């Protein structure tokens, strides 16, 4: 995927992943209670996502364009996780887990649960 999606753009992606497809009016309606963004701002974010090729637009309906993602939520999460690991831990999940353990970000029960998951793999 390699396209950076901003936090704001991610809010639109979440809506499209949930709905599978939506018009800009439907996206605006979904976001009206969650943000103070103006419709023009939301349309700009949608346009950016289209230019990044993570959202596609169906223009066959002349009244309103229909937007859908070209990237699944799982693909995005996988790519974002790899990017996060690469940036902060040189791609090493071991370094990341060790960092969490050393900084006490994982409880003893979470560590045990992690051990059990690794045994099952």
UniProtKB/TrEMBL annotation:
It comes from the Bacteria. The keyword Transcription applies. Keywords: DNA-binding, Transcription, Transcription regulation. SUPFAM superfamilies: Winged helix' DNA-binding domain. Gene3D superfamilies: Penicillinase repressor domain, Winged helix-like DNA-binding domain superfamily/Winged helix DNA-binding domain. The keyword Transcription regulation applies. Belongs to the BlaI transcriptional regulatory family. This is Methicillin resistance regulatory protein MecI. It comes from Terrisporobacter mayombei. The lineage of its organism: Bacteria, Bacillati, Bacillota, Clostridia, Peptostreptococcales.
């Amino acid at each position: 995927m390699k396209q950076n999606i901003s936090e704001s753009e991610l809010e639109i992606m979440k809506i499209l992943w949930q709905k599978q497809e939506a018009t800009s009016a439907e996206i605006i309606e979904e976001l009206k209670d969650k943000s103070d963004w103006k419709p023009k701002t939301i349309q700009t974010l949608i346009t950016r996502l289209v230019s990044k090729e993570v959202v596609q637009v169906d223009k066959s309906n002349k009244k309103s364009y229909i937007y859908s993602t070209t990237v699944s939520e799982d693909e995005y999460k996988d790519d974002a996780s790899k990017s996060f690991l690469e940036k902060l831990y040189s791609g090493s999940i071991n370094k990341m887990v060790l960092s969490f353990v050393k900084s006490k970000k994982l409880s003893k029960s979470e560590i045990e649960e992690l051990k059990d998951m690794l045994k099952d793999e």
